[in-house]
């Protein structure tokens, strides 16, 4: 899902269980925050012994129903404290000596502050708390400071921080309020991880589902107040666990889990991640090109389904079969049977159910899933993504292409036949691991339809032509030797051999890489043309054998023609056959080309010019064997009409049949794109 979205998060909703705030009601939250902090500061200035007497009874008697205002206050404070975000200030001072003073001057200037974090979700949350009045102004390793709407600075000491991992799906932080000395453990994470940690409630699961259906990414925020004794006990156990040599990670996790019990649920946040530009037309183009698209994501089922629908990966009218969670072989069998009865419907399955299905019914599941127009696998771990790619390669024997934008997609990108990485807000891990790197999802259309098409066609033409070029000269040598009682006499001496492979034929052969059968605009307008390429007809055993036969035919004609037509002087056989060979090669390049480019024409004439010019000073190479080193090439003979007509005759016999065959093939079985180009 992250690959299809912009990774620019916007805070959309705050839900407190009984009341929900959307984008249009954020000003209410702001007024609650302003009033509650004004109240706290007026009381703390009036009564210096206790900083927040208004909230004392609540901590001692948690069963009393809190007012909405205090619940909003707690929720916003938790969101402002529980994160891994650092505010950064740009230094505007030009002179290095003034930097320190300049930083002091502009420490809290709002327009100069930017937030940095590993995840864009966290930045969105902190920016939102700033918009409602509670601003994160500084943060270092041991403390962070918040600015209230009234301009007061609240300092919190960071005692412990438990970073987010893809296994735990949550992050926690323990802070101590400088003014009151209260220790609080805040935690936020995915609803799957948090639902078992928070106290019993009847709304969390339902609201998470509602938000996910709107395409929002949800985070559950909770807190737990700790006494000094509780914290000291935890810290000693935690430090001990960190020092253990065996199973350290497990022991540390166990100690942290001892805190994660019966936490007070504060709120549920919803953050929206908008789709990238042109995602829908790109997916539609890929589907029309005959490419099956699967979406593998770590997101929740509802979020994944919502993004699949909004990106038109699954069309609005299409049925969706949501695979029920299965844990046993029997359940998997029943669910697969239910799915088999449905026709032409998209499949949505979670990672756990997929694991069970692949364990017992791998072949049946892959066969059924491959018939679906679209498949969405949600709650997938990075290793599962790679496993699915390998599975498809193994079962379908088809080419796979994996597209990802984050570090969690690297294993999948490396497992696929072709990996495409998108450089985005999540860093460059994916694009560094991939074969191709692009900046936006929409570029995939052009990468496949235009560059993919040209790359395949050109590589096929160039590869086969280079084989033909080598085979034709080998055939001529074989014919020459067999005619002269298999004598081991080289047909072409030194430079002719080198020149043939380099200066005489190199430019036209390599100009084949400029050839294109369909204009880029056409290829993008009619993605159906791509289906032909998947059959692999441009480079196959059949085309290879055709080129081998052409080489043998042409080599034989050129050599026998030269032997039949040579005059009393034996030396002319080399001159005639080599000239005809060069002309044949140049004509064959012209025959292979589908769309002419001015550089191709230049290459053809340049090569011919090089050959004609070299005839003047390469005359000694046109002799045969040691005998004729004295018999130089007769310049007078080259310019005669006999030489010219003999060379032309041999060339015509070797090339004309192929031109006729190509014309007939074009006439009676034209390629699919000929309708569009005419």
From TrEMBL:
It is a multi-pass membrane protein. Keywords: ATP-binding, Golgi apparatus, Lipid transport, Magnesium, Membrane, Metal-binding, Nucleotide-binding, Translocase, Transmembrane, Transmembrane helix, Transport. GO terms for molecular function: ATP binding; ATP hydrolysis activity; ATPase-coupled intramembrane lipid transporter activity; magnesium ion binding. ATP binds at residues 1, 122, 164, 188, 217, 297-299, 379, 385, 408-409. Its EC number is 7.6.2.1. This is Phospholipid-transporting ATPase. GO terms for cellular component: endosome; plasma membrane; trans-Golgi network. Its main location: Golgi. Residues 42-54 have a biased composition (Low complexity). It is an enzyme of class 7 (translocase). One of its GO terms (biological process) is endocytosis. Belongs to the cation transport ATPase (P-type) (TC 3.A.3) family. Type IV subfamily. It is found in: Golgi apparatus, trans-Golgi network membrane; Membrane. It catalyses: ATP + H2O + phospholipidSide 1 = ADP + phosphate + phospholipidSide 2. Residues 432-670 form the P-type ATPase C-terminal domain.
């Amino acid at each position: 899902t992250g690959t299809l979205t912009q990774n620019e998060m916007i805070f959309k909703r705050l839900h407190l269980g009984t009341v929900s705030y959307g984008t249009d009601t954020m000003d209410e939250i702001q007024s609650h925050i302003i009033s509650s902090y004004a109240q706290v500061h007026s009381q703390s200035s009036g009564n210096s012994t206790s900083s927040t007497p208004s909230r004392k009874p609540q901590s001692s008697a948690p069963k009393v129903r809190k007012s909405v205002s205090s619940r909003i206050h707690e929720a916003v404070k938790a969101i402002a404290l529980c994160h891994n975000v650092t505010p950064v200030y740009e230094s505007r001072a030009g002179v290095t000596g003034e930097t320190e003073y300049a930083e002091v001057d502009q420490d809290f200037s709002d327009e100069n502050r930017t937030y940095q974090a590993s995840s864009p979700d966290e930045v969105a949350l902190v920016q939102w708390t700033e918009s409602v009045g509670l601003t994160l102004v500084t943060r270092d390793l041991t403390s962070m400071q918040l600015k209230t709407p009234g301009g007061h600075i609240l300092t919190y000491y960071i005692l412990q921080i438990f970073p987010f991992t893809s296994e735990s799906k949550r992050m926690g932080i323990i802070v101590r309020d400088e003014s009151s000395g209260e220790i609080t453990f805040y935690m936020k994470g995915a609803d799957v991880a948090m639902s078992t940690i928070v106290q019993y409630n009847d709304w969390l699961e339902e609201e998470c589902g509602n938000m996910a259906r709107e395409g929002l990414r949800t985070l559950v925020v909770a807190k737990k107040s700790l006494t000094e004794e509780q914290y000291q006990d935890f810290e000693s156990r935690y430090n001990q666990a960190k020092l253990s040599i065996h199973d350290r990670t497990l022991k540390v996790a166990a100690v942290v889990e001892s805190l994660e019990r019966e936490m007070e649920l504060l709120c549920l946040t919803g953050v929206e991640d908008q789709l990238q530009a042109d995602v829908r037309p790109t997916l539609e183009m890929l589907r029309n090109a005959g490419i099956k698209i699967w979406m593998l994501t770590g997101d929740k089922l509802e979020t994944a389904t919502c993004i699949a629908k909004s990106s038109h990966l699954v069309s609005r009218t299409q049925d969706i079969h949501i695979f029920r969670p299965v844990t046993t072989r029997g359940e998997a069998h029943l669910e697969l049977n239910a799915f088999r009865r449905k026709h032409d419907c998209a499949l949505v399955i979670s990672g756990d159910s997929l694991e069970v299905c692949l364990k017992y019914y791998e072949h049946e599941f892959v066969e059924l899933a491959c018939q679906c127009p679209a498949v969405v696998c949600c709650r997938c771990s990075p290793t599962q993504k790679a496993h699915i790619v390998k599975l498809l390669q193994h079962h379908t024997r088809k080419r796979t292409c994996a597209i990802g934008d984050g570090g969690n997609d690297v294993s999948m990108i490396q497992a696929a036949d072709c990996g495409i990485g998108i450089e985005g807000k999540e860093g460059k891990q994916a694009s560094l691991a991939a074969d191709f790197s692009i900046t936006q999802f929409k570029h995939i259309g052009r990468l496949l339809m235009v560059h993919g098409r040209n790359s395949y066609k050109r590589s096929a033409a160039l590869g086969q032509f280079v084989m033909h070029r080598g085979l034709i000269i080998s055939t001529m040598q074989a014919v020459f030797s067999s005619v002269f009682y298999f004598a081991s006499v080289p047909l072409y001496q030194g430079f002719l051999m080198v020149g043939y492979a380099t200066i005489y034929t190199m430019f036209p052969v390599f100009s084949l890489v400029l050839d294109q059968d369909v204009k880029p605009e056409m290829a993008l307008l009619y993605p159906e043309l791509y289906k032909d390429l998947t059959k692999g007809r441009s480079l196959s055993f059949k085309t290879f054998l055709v080129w081998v036969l052409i080489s043998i035919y042409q080599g034989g004609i050129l050599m026998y023609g030269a032997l039949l037509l040579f005059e009393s002087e034996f030396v002319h056989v080399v001159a005639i056959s080599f000239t005809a060979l060069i002309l044949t090669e140049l004509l064959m390049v012209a025959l292979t080309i589908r769309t002419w480019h001015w550089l191709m024409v230049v290459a053809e004439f340049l090569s011919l010019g090089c050959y004609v010019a070299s005839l003047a000073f390469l005359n000694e190479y046109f002799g045969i064997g040691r005998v004729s080193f004295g018999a130089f090439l007769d310049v007078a003979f080259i310019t005669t009409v006999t030489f010219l007509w003999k060379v032309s005759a041999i060339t015509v016999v070797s090339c004309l049949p192929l031109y006729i065959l190509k014309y007939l093939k074009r006439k009676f079985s034209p390629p699919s794109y000929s309708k569009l180009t005419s």
